[in-house]
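Entry 14. Structure prediction run on the chain below.
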Amino acid sequence: MALITLSAAHLAFGHVPLLDGADFALEAGERVALIGRNGAGKSSLLKILAGTEKPDDGLLQLQTGLRRVYVAQEPVFAAGATVFEAVAEGVGEARALRARYEAHAPGEDLDALQTRLEALGGWTWEQRVHEALQRLHLDAEVAVDALSGGTRKRVALAQALVAAPDVLLLDEPTNHLDIDAIEWLQQLLVEWQGAIVLVSHDRAFIDAVATRIVLLDRGRLTSYPGRFAQYQATRERELQAQELASARADKLLAQEEAWIRKGVEARRTRSAGRVARLQQLRAQRAARREQLGQVRLELDAGQPSGRIVAELDQVSMRFGEQPIVERFSATILRGDKVGLIGPNGCGKTTLLRLILGQLQPTAGRVRSGTRLQVAYFDQMRAALDLDATLAETISPGSEWVEIGGQRKHVMSYLGDFLFAPARAHAPVRTLSGGERNRLLLARLFALPANVLVLDEPTNDLDIDTLELLEELLQAFDGTVFLVSHDRQFLDNVVTSTIAWEGDPAFGGRPGLWREYEGGWEDWKLQRERARALAAAAAPASPEPVRAAASAVPGADGGARAAAARTRLSFKEQRELDALPGAIEALEAEQRELAERLCSAELYVKEPQRVPELQARHEAIEQELMQALQRWEDLAARAG
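Output returned:
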């Protein structure tokens, strides 16, 4: 028997049916990804499966004794609760039963209580909470109210995990998580023994976790076994078949309409059966619900910026004693699509403000380009006035929007983003999270800009809109700075990546940023290769030193460091002194090559030199990585 079975479910808000006779079944051990357009009803369906909402009609059946836990998209906790208290809510029944058992209330059936307590693991609930906190790297004493969105999501996940449910129901679990946290969650869910139903638009995450895809489209659920890539191929074939069938039905209807409108001679010969057939075709055409419209995205790139958007030379930025950026150099050219990668709080926004000249560095030089028109997409949606209408948000004080020199009525423009004319005068606060993101994109694209700064633009957007946004950014003539934790989106859009590499556990230092060619997968491959080279080059500590260090608790790192500081020879010291100059020379040569390769003159006058210069540019990148790694190793040993 299935763990959960939903039969002939109906759910509607107003005249829009979200579920229209939908059927769903969840088997033990399945990991189901529920996908669909924004506003299709995915979160509502998840709440019905969790038991927090009821359908208008239909039957929900559960296996006896089934334990379900639902993690909302924006988890809510009791005001003033600590992390420990919030996570302990996941074992609320076990806590209450143990309190009743220990109170020894008169007439209480202690045997029954004890049996239930043992079934729930109630005697060791504190230990389970502490284990979950340790596993998710959470501080038990911190107030939940003071945590970031990503850490609050970890608390909600810990609360769910400690309950040890049979079914885990997750609504957008990757929202607010950085890439490392997403990969950690990915692995956790793959190893999870229970069943999972999750709503997500992160294609890489779905592909790694899900064993089955369920599409909610126009009120109906369609199941696709296998991974997301298989679903995409199957769905494409289905849509093509639907289009052909619809076209044939429309053609037949048109023929019948033309026949019945013929002159007197045709009317004399028409049969009652053919008239009945026409009426049936009309009814079918009226009942057929067309596929939901596609978002139509256009960008006004404004006037072209200068060829160089920003040039950073040995830039450093500190807040007090904390280095955020340390000796970072880069040249951003017009048309570059730059991704910024790093954990939450590492300084991505600070680096962006330095690049755009909005913040002055504490050391180094930033040269900003000319004719820059910058437009921002803010993940916190701070730019939206919740009390303003959709039309006022897009075009305050006017009924027209100008895109690329062409005027478009605001109603028509909102329709391009799938907002019906009837909603144009509704307040922003009535929109869902995904709809607010769509509105932000509509506002952003209505502004003439040659530099786009997109901070987590993919949150809450459905997969169809994500793919269209990717195509738009790829074709955009201006410059794009993209902060995102959507790995596939980064891979499909960016041409280079600026990554934070300040983790000391992997040989990094505070404020260390590096630029790489390509997207997230390219960066990951290059980072792993560099770490492997560094690990292979690192000298092994002599056994006597390691043994002596291990004899004193906590002294291991100090003894190794002290021993390492004695190993720098005179030749190595000279090499260390010369490396900064060598690195600077390589970077200067790389900048010069980049400028030549971006010049049209080279391709006209010396096209035969292009492959040679491109090969040298790539070789310099490898030499720079090796020189930087060598400099870090020698500097660490020199103390």
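The two ends are 65 Å apart (CA to CA).
Filed with the rest of this week's runs.
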